[in-house]
Amino acid sequence: AATSILSLSLLAACGSNSSGGSNAEGDGAKSVSLRLAHNQPEDHPVHTSLMEFSKLSEENSDGSVKVEIFPNGQLGQERDVIELVKSGTLDMAKVSASALEAFDSNYAIFSLPYIFQSREHYHEVMDNSEAVQEIFQGTKDQGFVAIGWYDGGQRSIYTADKKVESPADMKGMKIRVQESPTSISMIEAMGGAPTPMSFGEVYTSLQQGVIDGAENNETALTNNKHGEVAKAYTYTEHQYVPDVLIVSTNMWDKLSEDQQKAIQDAAKASSESHKDVWQKAVEDSIKASEEMGVTFYTIDKKAFIDAAAPLHETYKAENENNAKYFDDFQSYLK
Ligand code: GCU
Q1: In DSSP terms, which residues pair with 31 in a beta bridge?
Q2: Would the CB of 199 count as within 6 Å of ligand 1?
Q3: Pocket test for ligand 1, best of 36, 178, 203, 285 (most atoms within 8 A of CB)
Q4: At what angle do helices 130-137 and 320-330 cross, to 10 degrees?
Q5: Which of 119, 203, 219, 287 registers the highest number of CB atoms within 10 A of its CB?
Q6: pLDDT digits (tens, 9 = 90+) for 131-146
Q7: What is the domain count for the chain?
Q8: 38 with 112, same domain?
């Protein structure tokens, strides 16, 4: 609650326009200045691609759409900013699809371990699947929709110094997970003790031994500095969780069709260019992590894949929609 109050007063103080896609004078389309929050530092690849999104939104709209970015979680953790977007207090946010599961259970599929078989499969689904578009549009009545995604890489387990080769190795280990019911069940299935918390708390929790490990892509070790306090990164490669760009319906409905198209095109183009930005950033992160003393372990993942398999069955059996989404995702396997 403290963060929300801080965020609200920050928002009130920093906007030169009033909130929620307010209109300013301009010839032709009324100009808008939109505020976009996310929790990564400015040297993070996702920030780079959001800057590209901002630039393209402005270009595509002949200057009538400006997107101002608030990085570093300065407007709150992911849960907080999703709330702000829902209520129309904030225009846009970039959050993990896992964080969205707490707001809409249809997002669960993105956190299912080993649902994507490869980076290609993941990209095919995210770029082309109707199920993804249905999920992205499905929260309209809740006050927000998703208009794009960014590659967030593959997530693996990292600990202070222990390589984890099998679920047995994870026994009794407190592993931080995102605040997503599916991610919680996933760590249980993989043998560990899931500890959900917001991303901003992970570094200190690792440092103080409140948790024994966490799971994320390689950039967490460098851009988020977790490699200072976690030296063993084991390639369990259990999830590909997309980062998702959400907008408040309140603001979206006030835009002209041309402005909506300008923004949507910008989201698509920046998502596409992000794929290379991401790949390069991961390579750099691995190098820099090794210099920090992190060791990367490649393992036979079969025991983890088998342990996680029942989650797919439970997910599909839950309702018809789930089964439909699951099949849709599988249909993009080449
Ligand atoms: C990734 C993702 C963030 C998310 C984080 C997490 O880094 O890009 O949006 O907050 O994972 O584990 O919480």
Answers
A1: 24
A2: yes
A3: 178
A4: 140
A5: 219
A6: 999 999 999 999 999 9
A7: 2
A8: yes
